[in-house]
Every structure is written in C-alpha cells, then in structure tokens.
Amino acid sequence: MKAEIRTTNDGSPTLFVPELDEHYHSTFGALTESEHVFIEAGLKPALQKFDEIHLLEIGFGTGLNALLTLINTKGKTVNYTAIEAFPLDDKIIEKLNYTDDPSTKKLFHKMHKCSWNEKHELRPGFFLTKVKSKIEELDLNRQQFNLVYFDAFGPDVQPELWTDEIFQKTSSSMLSGGILTTYSAKGEIRRKLKRAGFEVERIPGPPGKRHMTRARRV
C-alpha cells in the first residue's frame, strides 16, 4: 500500500493511505493520540501493577507506540512483541520525525532496522520482537502478555481484525489483570471484548474523540 506523509494538528507526522482513505493516526495529533490512548491509559497503569511488562501490539505501523513505550520505561524490563502484516518502506521511515533528540531519533531508526521475527535488545532491559504476519494466521502463546495495544486500522476499514475470534485469541494470550487499550469506543467492539473475557470501560478519548476503550482481562 502506498502511503503519504501528512502533518497532524500537534505538528507530528502520520501517514495517509489513499487506497483505504485512512490515516495511521488521528489528524488532531499523532503524538498526542498515542500518548493518551496507549501510554497514559495503558502503559502507566500496567507499570503500577506489574514488575515486568510483556506487551503485545497489534499494528506496529510507524513504530510510534513502541518509541513512546521505550521512552517511558527506563529502568524497567519490557518484552515488546509487535505484529505487522504490511511493514513500511524504509524510504518512508527515514522521513518520519517524532523527536528532535538525537539519541531518541537513533533508537527510532534502530527499531526499524531490527530484523523481523527475531528478538532484539534495543537498550538494557527493552526487548523488541517484530512479527511479520497477519494476526489471523498467527498462534499466540497462552497467558503471555499483561498489556495489549490494539492499534489496527478502524473496524470500518479492517473489519477482519475486530472480530470475536481475534478478541478471543488476544484474550487467551493475556494474563489475568492484563490491560488492553484501543482508540475505538464503538459499542459493538466493547460487547465483543466482554464476550472474550474482559471487563470493559469507556474512558475519555484524545483530542477530536470523545471516548476510547480500556479493558482488563478477568
């Protein structure tokens, strides 16, 4: 899929896919959205509950969520598994800029240069495994993760990723008490999460979106 770089309202970049008529992030602010939905609502509560973070991201995309997680977990042990069926072209990655800090920028590019389907240590205690696959075709270990970033394209664009089967597979891969966050607040999605064994809450969303969803694995 071809992607075009667009600047969002907070000055950070996102990608627009003409084929899908869809952006990778909120046009109100890519960085703001990721920090709100995944870091504030997901990572920080998980850090208060668990000594180590075992994280699954569904939709690696630009790597922004992984970068923010890396920044916010210094001194912590993090095992980060990211699933992506359609990796971005290196030429696009080179043009993305989420930080002016040289060391952080270096980590961002190091993250994207990591080979697929292998475990890499980006910094002491932070391990990244990028899995090139569709989640529909992937077997996940049971009771492995205590945090999930569900960051696929929206249900209207990729409905095959927002099914009861996918949420059940995700649920089975999580530990009791694990947290799942997603920007979607649709009632249908919340009901599917409940059927998959989650306690679900609708909480305030990032700029431009009234609500988002946070769920806890029972």
How does CATH name the architecture? Answer: 3-Layer(aba) Sandwich
N to C succession of SSEs: EEEHEHEHHEEEHEHEE
CATH class assignment: Alpha Beta
Number of domains: 1
What does this entry look like structurally?
By secondary structure, the chain is of the alpha/beta class. The protein has one domain (31-217): Vaccinia Virus protein VP39 (Rossmann fold), CATH 3.40.50. Helices cover 29% and strands 31% of the residues. The chain has six helices and eleven strands. It has helices at residues 30-49, 64-71, 90-95, 102-113, 164-172, 187-195, and strands at 4-7, 13-17, 22-23, 52-58, 77-84, 119-123, 126-132, 145-150, 174-182, 198-204, 211-217. The strands form two sheets. The chain has an eight-stranded mixed beta sheet with strand order 6-7-5-4-8-9-11-10, with helices on both faces. The protein has a three-stranded antiparallel beta sheet with strand order 1-2-3, with no helix packed on it. The longest helix has 20 residues, at 30-49. The protein is globular, with a radius of gyration of 16 Å. It starts with a strand and ends with a strand.
